[in-house]
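User: Can you help me understand a structure? I only have the sequence.
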Amino acid sequence: MLGSYQRPVPMPIAKLPYLGILKLRDLPFAFYNCDSQPYIGSITDHPYYRSLDENDPSIFLTYYKSREHSLNFIEYSWENFVALKEKIRLDGWHPNLGPPITVRDAGQEDGTHRLSILCHLYGPDATVMIVDGNLTFPALQLNEYQIERLSHAIGRLVLEKTAQISALENELANCKNEKKALLNSNSWKLTKPLRFIKDWFLSKT
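Assistant: Let's start by predicting it. Here is the structure, written out as tokens:
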């Protein structure tokens, strides 16, 4: 696999949590071919991670070379990659190492280098927190049972908040309908000033 980049077997795509904790190995990871077409695999198959794990820059460079003509290609050297790894190894992980790492159901949208380094230094079982599509590390240091309970609790909280928002939206719609009904009733004495006020009020509701 050193001379050419071989595409891994795609992993099934599962809907990512709006809020929740998952292991790096379970995070859908976006790969790209030379035409910038994404497909999903595991982070442990990605050439950036493998190049660190196997201490082989040729894996990194082969994949990097295959993307040179893609639209979203970014200049990045092996030396910069290793320097970033050493910085994280010595100083720890910090959010200000780059822009926020966003994730969607189709996989992570950026942060490939940082996530590969994170996986190399802390292992594929390291847990990350997803909050509204943004990935943070470290996640809370919990065991698997605690992670499962927290995920269920977060899921219930999201459903409750969604129901509350829906109820508020319905109340607001009802209030607007009641106002319109009142304004359309015969109780209005439509003198010219009042008609002007009524038309303006209706335009705002």
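Now, to help you interpret it: The helical segments are 47-53, 57-66, 78-91, 112-122, 144-184, 192-204. The first helix runs from residue 47 to 53. Let me know which part you'd like to focus on.
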